[in-house]
Amino acid sequence: MIAAPDRTPLTREFFDRPVLEVAPDLLGRILVRTTPDGPIELRLTEVEAYDGQNDPGSHAYRGRTARNDVMFGPPGHVYVYFTYGMWHCMNLVCGPEGRASAVLLRAGEIIEGAELARKRRLSAQQDKELAKGPARLATALGVDRALNGTDACAPEGSPFTLLAGTPVGPDQVRNGPRTGVSGDGGVHPWRFWIANDPTVSPYRAHTPRRRRT
């Protein structure tokens, strides 16, 4: 018999660790998104680590700005950014406070509230595609910049909660280069995913954007 996922909320101490410890440890955990229409639960299957001013691929590499302020802590908060003029992406901030680092949530399996996610992801042909990629994940969960800075470790009332779920064993964790990251940051093998999981997004190397003429 397969044991039911652990419904214990993750504490702030879970996130108050180096980002390369937190990122793979998030695989198999459950993200609960509370909405006025009901909850959506997502089992995390793919993430990427970003290590602040030590990481050329990080938004915080060149220091603190209004955009990346949430990345500097406290840990356990949600960092949401807007990209390509059309998509939102969701991250979880890790500690210690004052040192910017965060984990990008790249993909997951919707295990509850799929009917709500489908309404936001009309182009998804199968449920495994609902949150297959960071922009799709944020869209399925109804995440936008209004939720930037949300405390996912608040004792009650937060639109996000992380549950212990069923952590993935080391033999099931894979890692490789981050998707779409250019330059020196592109070489870091800081993308982590569950082996053979159908919700994991395909790897894509960085492709320079062409300027419109």
From TrEMBL:
Pfam families: Pur_DNA_glyco. It is an enzyme of class 3 (hydrolase). Gene3D superfamilies: Methylpurine-DNA glycosylase (MPG). One of its GO terms (biological process) is base-excision repair. It comes from the Bacteria. InterPro entries: Formyl_transferase-like_C_sf, MPG, MPG_sf. Its EC number is 3.2.2.-. This is Putative 3-methyladenine DNA glycosylase. It comes from Streptomyces montanus.
